[in-house]
Amino acid sequence: MRFFDPHIHVTSRTTDDLERMAAAGVRAIIEPAFWVGQPRTTAGSFVDYFASLLGWERFRAAQFGIAHYCAIGLNSKEANNESLAREVLELLPRFALKEGVVAIGEIGFDEITAAEERAYVAQVQLAREHDMVVMVHSPHRDKKRGIRRSLDIARELGFPMEKLVIDHNNEETVAGTLEAGAWAAFTIYPHTKMGSERMLEIVKKYGPERVIVDSSADWGVSDPLAVPRTAKLMLERGIAPEVVERVTWQNALEAYGQSGQIDAEALLCKPAIDQRQLFADNSVLRGQEPRVEGGVPN
Amino acid sequence: MTPFLLLRKLLEARLATSATSWFRASTKEIADGPTNARFCALFSQAARHVKHAPLSPAAAEVEAAERCIPGWNPERWDVLEAVRVGLVLARTDLAGDGGALALEEAFRYADEGELCALLRALGLVPGGERFLWRAREGCRSNMRSVYEAAALDTPYPALHFDDDAWRQCVIKCLFVGAPLWRLWRLDERLSPELARMALDLADERRSAGRPVPHELWLCLGPYGGARGLDALERELVPANPNRAGRCAAALAFARAGDTGRLARLEKDETDPAMREALARARAGDTGSLSFRHLAQLPS
Q1: Alpha-carbon span A151 to A149, nearest angstrom
Q2: Are strands A3-5 and A26-32 parallel, antiparallel or unpaired?
Q3: Do B109 and A280 touch (CB under 8 A)?
Q4: Mean of per-residue pLDDT scores for chain A
Q5: Which residues in chain B touch residue A47, judged by CB atoms under 8 angstroms apart?
Q6: CATH classification (class only), A3-278
Q7: What does each C-alpha distance from B249 to A156, A211, A225, A248, B181 come to in angstroms?
Q8: What is the pLDDT of residue A288?
Q9: What's the gap in Å between the CA of B1 and the closest CA on chain A?
């Protein structure tokens, strides 16, 4: 099977991970802009970070036959440094309109502060102006209220619900997200957020429509293979293959494909890996023989 | 014809009608002097109007480019890249500070595709030497696409790089696996120091049990000395499975002026690719362009 992991911070993952992801059938990924584990102190750090999502990380993923898209945005935690946040919000249009940017994200709430709300509003407006998709991060603490607030604000701003993806849902929030007409994404984490077993129950209960599975793998304990692993479990437990395909491939493609930045046909082709054509000898490959023979098994 | 007019002609023969109107409107807006932010936005948004595809210029168009700017070869350009270079050249203030500041701003926020287009443009803009640091950054990139845009099919390195920068650019080409024969005026800037760096790299590769890139032998010219000839002899041994390497070594003997060695080789050589390389060498076709035939050679 082929998989689309529409939320992974692959900048924090190694080439071993990329290799395992490709071997497990992960064909396309989205890397949303987030914080880097500790707060940045200058706008320049954001410029370089956004540039790396559009440059080096895309290049790196391509070495393994994985199509890399990204979302650009100011995350909720760092929205609380208001003077820096203002500078970053001003910078966003410089990056948000570039090739391969499929959404504004991940944005939303962390502590549900007024500063977070101002940054969220500004970014939803930016997305609306440019007819873009929005990827919303929902908070760990007071999740239900955070999601409700994110949905309400988007609605008040006249933002179309079919372009809104609410991420990190759980059993308590899924109904509200789906009823609002937004996409409901679920992050499969080894210990927290959502496990594969629980995901299985959610798909059984709510069906596959507008439901998306992702890994959100980052610099913490997380699993870059969460999407293929969850698919495997679903299939073993008797979920129909077309349902599994919807939640691990097709829905992400449809939601983020609204950006016009994803060439679905190209994704369906057998990915050509030609590290010989693309690699830099002293970077991604360090002296090992490049793989040129072809596709990613799936 | 100016590079801008030539590019416009090339593009209008290839773009869809809607993309052509967007390109015309954008170049007009740029000629009227937009803000730098607007210029950068148009530069980014080109991707929303034009898809990636090889530009595939005809032979006459490639010749026209060479006549226009010696060293400019758009053979490997991408259509989107060409559109973006067109947007740069549409500026009427490129020779002044305003144009330079706008390009600097575009460089600062460039993604990979934009960066490649800006680097390709550097060989075509007036006062290109003002962007020396950017071109050198491009030649330090580990992204082969970026390296190629900065270094190959453009007169820029030959015209503006000092000897240190030039040698680094040549050796980096071997590291990223880009085709060195496309580096303009390589043969005119060979040197004993470049030959030494290349031979050190060959030794490193051999010590590590790794193949020597065949284009490394382009770097010797007449400056390899006895050490160079020894290294070439090692490459030539019939047991060497790297056929491109053997052919390149034969051509390198010719480039070093050792025609006697070539005559001895011709006597009992059986590999058809080698025989072809030797015939080319005999005919005096030993410039860096002669290496273009070797890249596709199966080992």
Answers
A1: 5
A2: parallel
A3: no
A4: 91
A5: 108-109
A6: alpha beta
A7: 72, 60, 47, 53, 15
A8: 53
A9: 32
